[in-house]
Amino acid sequence: MMTGMRVAPILVVLFVASFAVRAADPVSVTKAAPKVERKTFDPADPKSPKPPLKANEIALCEYVFRIEVDFRFAPVSVTPAAGGFRASVRIDSVAVRLSMPVTIWLPKGVDDHVRAHEEGHLRIAEAFYKDAQAAAREAAKGVVGAPVEGEGKDKNAAVQAALQKAAAGISDRYVVAVKGPTDEVEQIYDRITDHSRVRDVTSEAGVKLAMEEWRKSKK
User: Fold this and answer.
1) Helices H, strands E: what count in the chain?
2) How many CB atoms lie within 10 A of CB 71?
3) Which 8-state DSSP code applies to residue 194?
């Protein structure tokens, strides 16, 4: 039997305020501390809430690198287009909020080795989330001042489509910078520890070896 790790898709929540005065610093980023919840379940009890385990998995660490954005923007143009309208907007400033909710699922009566293994997955995620503010700032800077276009059935829908396109661009860059390397190290960690089945490798040693191997691969 093995343990598991899931990184849920990054969530982009779009809030919009328009016609803003341009800020001195067009990008602001705030980061909440990881919010960790540890749950115990009874595999033998059909009424016990259970995690989304895959075949042969007995425990799970799942987390989300969540990013929310507020745009302040000015419409550049809204013109008729086939089936509706095309809007062009200029993003004047972006306020980014980052969070990382985590749930560690452990079966009733689990041993300390498996428990520590799941905590190792958490430490890897926390290591990359530590510097997430810089990654988010760089991702958001890419949309400031540039025109973004979108289409919709009416003028408002076209503007919203343009803003959603800008939000997706920020999210995509953040995924590459934070989630991408986290996934790589998590996979190395599970290979080294064989999903906690290698009993003579502690979670601390496994995390350290995984990080070292990943860093060497990037040189």
Assistant:
1) 5, 9
2) 25
3) T
- Terminal-to-terminal C-alpha distance of the chain: 35
Burial of 146 (0-12, 13-18, 19+ CB in 10 A): exposed
Q: Give Cα 130 distance to the centre of its chain.
A: 13
* Sequence-ordered strand ranges (E) for 19-168: 27-31, 35-41, 57-64, 66-81, 84-99, 101-107, 147-152
Question: pLDDT tens for residues 148-189?
Answer: 999 999 999 999 999 999 999 999 999 999 999 999 999 999
Provide the token pair at 187: 């996979």
Rounded CA gap, 117 and 219, in Å? 27
Strands 66-81 and 12-18: parallel
Block residue for tokens 């995390």: 207
Q: What are residue 72's DSSP bridge partners?
A: 17, 93
In b/e form, how buried is each residue of 173-193, taking b as 16+ CB within 10 angstroms?
bbbebbbebbbbbbebbbebb
Q: Mean pLDDT across the chain, nearest whole number?
A: 90
d(CA 142, CA 101): 26
The residues with which 86 forms a beta bridge, in sequence order, are 79, 151
